[in-house]
Amino acid sequence: MLATGGRPAARLTAHLAVTASANSLLRLIRKLPDKVVGSAPRVLGVDDFATRKGHIYATILVDMETGERVDVLPDRTADTFAAWLRAHPGVQLVCRDRGGAYAEAVRSAAPDAVQVADRFHVWKNLCDAVDKCVAAHRVCLAETAAEVADQDGTPSTADQPAPVPPQVEGRRAATRRERHAAVHALLDKGVGISAIAQALGLDRKTVRRYAQAPSPQDMLSGPVRRGTCVDAFLPYLHQRWNEGCTDTARLFAEIQRQGYQGSKRTLRRHFQDLRAGGVPAPKAGEELTVRRATRLLTSHPDHLDEAGTLRLKKLRARCPELDAVAGCVAAFATMMTNRNGHLLSEWLHQAEATGFQPLRSLVRGLRQDFDAVTAGLTLDWNSGRVEGNVNRIKRIKRDGYGRAGFDLLRLQILHAD
Predict the structure, then answer these.
(1) Residue 6: burial class (beta carbons within 10 Å; 0-12, 13-18, 19+)
(2) Same domain, residue pair 312 and 344
(3) Residues 131/294, Cβ–Cβ less than 8 Å
(4) Are residues 356 and 319 in the same domain?
(5) By CB distance 3.0 to 4.6 Å, which of 83, 95, 134, 143 could disulfide with 147?
(6) Are 301 and 352 part of one and the same domain?
(7) Overall number of domains in the chain
(8) Same domain, 294 and 364
(9) Is 242 part of any domain?
(10) For 162-174, how does the pLDDT look when each residue is reduced to its tens digit (9 = 90+)?
């Protein structure tokens, strides 16, 4: 009854010869006795989950030593969690994510409790920052002509500089450059953020982003490449291009006979950069995108195959800035694996020295939550059990979609097997 509830449970009772209506079964669930919580568990885990994604969130509390669900709160505000902690004293350690509301509640209602920031969330914050750093240096992802020649076994032209395709500035890039110059010109005159936002007609957060960016390229606002109908024909197209066939009309006719249904303009756009740069076409499926480069930089070396290891080595050799980012990632991974939280302060200086704005923003956030992050990188506690319960809640929500309010959902969560 708890697992199904409502109409599914009513259909099940018909097979058990105990006929009951859906409303009767839901009333029985609502009559279940509430859990009586005296003092809080010694180690408490807290996390939020969506009752209506993007709009309404609730909070689940878990005993981290036993895995038992302790309580479910109707929202994720600091005041609600702080009131619960005052009504249930005794917590000594709180495992949480990087959310500021829970941290504030623990500081106000249980100041003696040790807060532990979950390592997974800290690592995810680092990976997101690395992704932005790679996006800022996406021009370094393309292999040089010498590297392509070495990979294909053709005579190397390493002694000659690789031709660089001309960079055509688009409308968005030009706007970004002009706004960056305008913001910094006003900043140099001592104008404040709010006044600049009003003068330029921009949001204060947007002006602050421009103010924190040393150059327009650090704004990291570039289009994300999506798959096109050309992708399925790339192996054949790149092979023909490297054989010397660079006539778009001829290539269009050839792949049309193979089932291509896109336009000639889409195909011409694909070869635009190759034609301007005069470089060989890379092997299909091996182009180093921002996502793939981020994965290379954040993966454990033992989890990379030989090709991945080689591509990471070439990337670090091509771009000293990303090489510094890779060093920061490796140092943080070692610190996290070996539980050397006392090295966090030293790592923060290393990350800040790279000069990347995303890493500097990460450093500021970690310093604001320094004690909890240090504890997370030192102690064995993490939020794994809480996240497991959140996944279980998603299944309960799917089963009760359209039938369960918060009171019923709370009882199903607390009494779930």
Answers:
(1) buried
(2) yes
(3) yes
(4) yes
(5) 143
(6) yes
(7) 3
(8) yes
(9) no
(10) 444 444 456 777 8
| Residue carrying the six token digits 């006979």 | 257
pLDDT at 149: 53
pLDDT digits (tens, 9 = 90+) for 375-402: 999 999 999 999 999 998 888 787 666 6
Distance, CA of 400 to CA of 410 (rounded, Å): 12
Q: What is the rounded distance in angstroms from the CA atom of residue 298 to the CA atom of residue 295?
A: 5
Q: Are residues 92 and 114 in the same domain?
A: yes
Report H helices in 65-192: 78-87, 100-109, 119-136, 145-152, 171-188
Q: What's the rounded mean pLDDT across residues 208-229?
A: 68
Task: Check if the beta carbon of residue 242 is closer than 8 Å to that of residue 283.
Answer: no
Q: Which residues contact 267 (CB under 8 A, 6 or more apart)?
A: 230, 237, 248, 251, 252, 255, 260
pLDDT in tens, 339-360: 999 999 999 999 999 989 899 9
Mean pLDDT for all residues in the chain: 83
d(CA 71, CA 58): 11
Q: Is 343 contained in some domain?
A: yes
Domain assignment of residue 172, yes or no: yes
Please check whether residue 244 lies inside any domain of the structure: no
Give the position of tokens 């070996």.
338
Place of tokens 């917590």: 91
Q: Do 301 and 365 belong to one domain?
A: yes
370 and 400 part of one domain: no
> Can you tell me the mean pLDDT for 263-289?
76
Question: How far is 86 from 91, CA to CA, in rounded Å?
Answer: 10
| Contact present, 383 and 44 (Cβ < 8 Å) | no
Domain range enclosing 362: 120-130+288-376
Judge contact between 116 and 375, C-beta under 8 A. yes
Q: What is the DSSP string of 13-63?
A: HHHTT----HHHHHHHHHTSPPPP--SPPSEEEEEEEEEETTTEEEEEEEE
pTM: 0.69
pLDDT tens by residue, 74-123? 999 999 999 999 999 999 999 999 888 999 999 999 999 999 999 999 99
By the 10 Å C-beta count (0-12 exposed, 13-18 middle, 19+ buried), 402 is classed as exposed
Q: Name residue, tokens 């997101």.
A: 128
Cβ distance 29 to 408 under 8 Å?
yes
Same domain, 336 and 403: no
Element at 93 (helix H, strand E): strand 93-96
CB atoms closer than 10 angstroms to residue 19: 9
